[in-house]
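SAMPLE LOG
Freezer: B-3
Tube label: C17
Construct: single chain, 750 aa
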Amino acid sequence: MKRYLEQLFFSFPLQLLLSHIRSNVLLFGMWLLAGLLIAGKIGNKLGIPYLFLDPEYQGTIDFWSFFLVGLTYGGFVMSWNLTTYLLNAHHFPFLASLSRPFTKFCINNSLLPLVFFILYSIYILQFQLIYESVLVWDAILRWSGLCAGILAIISFYGAYFHLTNKDISHYEIAPTSAPEQERMFVPGRRDVDMDYIKQDANRWKVMTYLNESFRPKLVRSVAHYDVRLLLNIFRQNHLNVLLLQLLTMGLLLALGYLIDASAFRIPAAASIFILLSIFTAVIGAIIYWFSNWWFTVFVGLLFVANYATSFDELHQRNKAYGMDYTCKPAEYSLARMQAVCESGQIERDKKNTTDILNAWLSKVNAQQKSKRKPKMVLFCVSGGGLRSAIWTMKVIQTADSLLEGQLMPHTVLFTGASGGMIGASYLRELYLQKQSGKALNVYDQAYIDKISKDLLNSIAFTIVTNDIFLPWATFEQSGHTYNKDRGYIFERQLNENTHGLLDKSLSDYREPERRAIIPMIYLTPTIVNDGRRLLVSPHGTSFMMVPPVGAAFRQTLEIDAVDFRWMFGPQSADNLRFLTALRMNATYPYVLPNVHLPSNPGIEVMDAGALDNYGFFSAIRFIQVFRDWIEQHTSGVVLVQINTSERTEAISPSNNMGVIESLINPVGIAGKVFTLQEFQHDNSLGLMYNLFGEDRMEVIRFIYRPRDRKKLKAAISFHITQLEKNDVLNAMWLPENRKSLEALQRVILQ
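STRUCTURE (predicted):
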């Protein structure tokens, strides 16, 4: 028994695993990272696990979508095998004496990939059967696609090495006069003397290995072999490994040119596995060539890369499509922003917006049945990826239908962040199409189906095949040339999903808004450089840059927002692509690139949710500015808030914390940004109630919450599963949302 236990412990699979844990921590970490992603321990709120458990390809989840994931998972496994073979094979010189040494290495190195595959398969089948409620046969069929993909890529690698690798019997070594004086180094490893480690007393102890039939075999000594024979075998395998890795990198570069073709936009999970394969190969190459200096070299390369990409030639920053970056940049300074208070621009913009409000008043008075002053409706929609887009559309469709088409005419303004504004903008465009005479049903479920189509697969694929190699393909928009990257593909995919309805410039909406055919929209991306909001609208919004009394007390109240058209007029602000404006407003960090604007100094913008995830600040400022007009011409304001998260959260205890947790705990307040925003919103709302009175100011909330809290809640992601989608749509009929519908009917139709 003792002998068998010893052979088990010193078996090649187990010793390889111990070798990885000891010497290849970063590479081992790739598997740990992938496992944590699939298990939902990382990125669960962003829906990352669903990308692996429910992969989508060209809008469908089936055998082929899982096949593509299996193909790339198999590629990750082989990248792991290739890299660890480069780094570890010399510790086990007995391999060189075997037929098909790399094949045997892969078989014995499969312990970690096999455990991962088993756990991955369990998660897939559980998710498909329980959360997607598919039939057992369908779940097995999808899982078989994963298996087929893995087998396909491994078979390809196996065939390649079978044709190119030679056994030790194919090599002949000519005698040398003094071989004992030569030091034989492992290829690429000048610190590893092969003649030393081949001796039984010096090599890594291994007693048994698995052959191709998965049967254990005893390891034979190679001390009697000429070291040059062993080196020839390793050199041959190393060359094949390097060639395959270079071929993979070249293939990815080629695919980066094909991002416009939908057939090449593989599932996001597949892109993640490709990315892990690349990281594995790059880290392995650095360790292989620089040995003990690898960490120093790795850190040095990071600094070099950071410095090199500070130059525009090597850092293709994402730009706002439609804008002119060849003319003189706009001056972005506090002095210029403060000067707006003295220029008369604020009064001109206020008059222009007042004209819009007058047009709205005339139109709504002509449509409503009662003679009383109308209610002014403002929508504040929250961010949250596709779940917010779906929830926003569902709420407005349902409410407008129940109000006999009176909700949209009563609406003056949409504000908000991210996915919520994408859904509101799409519905507003549908409403405009109908107002223009198109025969369409704005309440059709098909439009929700379109806006809920996947956006993340295209983004992930473009990151892997294009962005990490620096974007090099270009396209033209409004007479200007820009680089293709994940920002470009996001807009292209969204445009395809919505059948081109939103492919307009910012100025295309000026006339419909001016005539009050459609409600106004304020998009408010966050300026990263100074934390101000950028107000994007086809009309002047300089009156939103500072509180109403700010013009009189310029030294007391600081400007906290910037009118986009006022700041960037000479840089073709009116030509800004509306899809780009929506993307600027929904730029979740790292998922989408920050947009750099043509200013001096250069500024960049990101998601509006960083400062105002609910659009409250813009709505409250608008009400403040036009308070007198509202009191004179309306019977009050109805603030409709569409949220995709509940307002109350569980209180996390601070007791029973260790020293490390206690040190980190104060930083946790940064993760409560949305809760802090809600506190600020409620404070502002209280001031509004004091100004208008409770009878002239009403807030109606529609909140999405999962019907079954034990099941997965819809994630904040640009990908949504059918289960999540159904959960979001069904939330419309929760008791609290039914009450909100009744309240909305009461205030609008009374």
